[in-house]
Amino acid sequence: MSIKLGSLVVGMATYVPGLRSLTGRKTGGTVSARYCYSVWLRHLSVLHGSALPTEFERAAELGPGDSLGIGLAAMLSGTEHYLALDAVRYANNSLNLQIFEELIGLFRAQAPIPDDAEFPLVQPSLPSYAFPADVLTSARLDAALSPKRLELIRASIRNPATTARADAPICYIAPWEPGVIRDATVDLVLSQSVLEYPRDLAGIYAEMCRWLKPGGVMSHEIDFKSMGLTTEWNGHWSCSDAVWRLAAGRRRNRVNREPHSTHIALIEKMGCRIVRDQRIMRPSGITRAQLAPRFHFLVDDDLTTSSALIQAVKPA
Ligand SMILES: C[S@@+](CC[C@H](N)C(=O)[O-])C[C@H]1O[C@@H](n2cnc3c(N)ncnc32)[C@H](O)[C@@H]1O
């Protein structure tokens, strides 16, 4: 069997009242300013490489996790309004403020993008980790880092809006519900290691496409691995629903097991045009014969795609 015994034990324990809340108490990455800086500049650099816009009036992030640092990095690159939507309220004002100050230092120094040596598990990887001075020019940075603007952002970090008010620099809604953002009001929707979790992926993609203005872009880094619950990286596709229910249990963050082709199909179905599909390929740990019946629809590429950065544009 592909499921690890330890995963089964933990998964089953989450059904015991009170124990579920012990899972997913932290999300990991965004506790570090350098991680947030790296993730934001990786998305921005690839957008630039895809000839997509890199300046945004309003950016929305799905699943910021422990801090709003990725969106704060977007604001320090000139984004005027940042909407953070999470399923769980992980971030707090004091960590957000601390990360903001560290990010200011990194942008002022035009520090190189922290690379695979520092963050070996972070995707997308880039051909160069030099500071993207061609995108974030001195003029753009001077305007974004003006003392008056920084004070305005600090004030908003101390007191973020909890509804998507048009005038608020920062809005943090967690948990969020469909309908919280008005149609065609957002220029960029971004997520990092998030879309492998929501159950209602079709609903989430419909929402995100609805938020985008015509010409707006989305940039999502998605991990398709089993998150260590199985012995093979893609062993989750060999598990029956019953076994998976026991192993994943009621963990706060359970992967939805949707493969790469599902994401591509949903984005296209919503009428967005895929501009970049940067995949990490890995030999499959299972054969087609081992696929659980409900995963027979996987195409061969799904079996070997362990993560992808997908960027798409909503037609103007
Ligand atoms: C692995 S963490 C990633 C956090 C952060 N983006 C990072 O790079 O470290 C996954 C995040 O996705 C969030 N998430 C899961 N389902 C979500 C949903 N339906 N809507 C918004 N956020 C969701 C979780 O609450 C968590 O914050």
What this model shows, in words?
By secondary structure, this protein is α/β, with parallel strands linked by helices. It has one domain (5-313): Vaccinia Virus protein VP39 (Rossmann fold), CATH 3.40.50.150. It has ten helices and seven strands. It has helices at residues 5-13, 33-49, 69-75, 93-108, 138-144, 147-158, 201-211, 241-248, 260-269, 300-304; strands at residues 58-62, 81-85, 170-173, 186-192, 212-223, 273-281, 305-313. The protein has a seven-stranded mixed β-sheet, with helices on both faces. Strand 4 (186-192), helix 7 (201-211) and strand 5 form a beta-alpha-beta unit. The longest helix is centred in the N-terminal third of the chain and has 17 residues, at 33-49. The termini are far apart. The site of S-adenosylmethionine has 21 residues, from loops.
Distance between the termini: 49 Å
The first-level CATH class is given as: Alpha Beta
Name every ligand kind in the structure: S-adenosylmethionine
The class by helix and strand makeup works out as alpha/beta
Secondary structure layout plus pairing:
Blueprint lengths: L4 H9 L19 H17 L8 E5 L6 H7 L5 E5 L7 H16 L29 H7 L2 H12 L11 E4 L12 E7 L8 H11 E12 L17 H8 L11 H10 L3 E9 L18 H5 E9 L3
Parallel strand pairs: 1-2, 1-4, 2-3, 4-5
Antiparallel strand pairs: 5-7, 6-7
Helix pairs in contact: 1-8, 2-3, 2-4
The chain binds S-adenosylmethionine (SAM).
The site of S-adenosylmethionine has 21 residues, from loops.
Keyword list:
316 residues, globular, single chain, Rossmann fold, binds S-adenosylmethionine, seven-stranded mixed sheet, alpha/beta, 7 strands
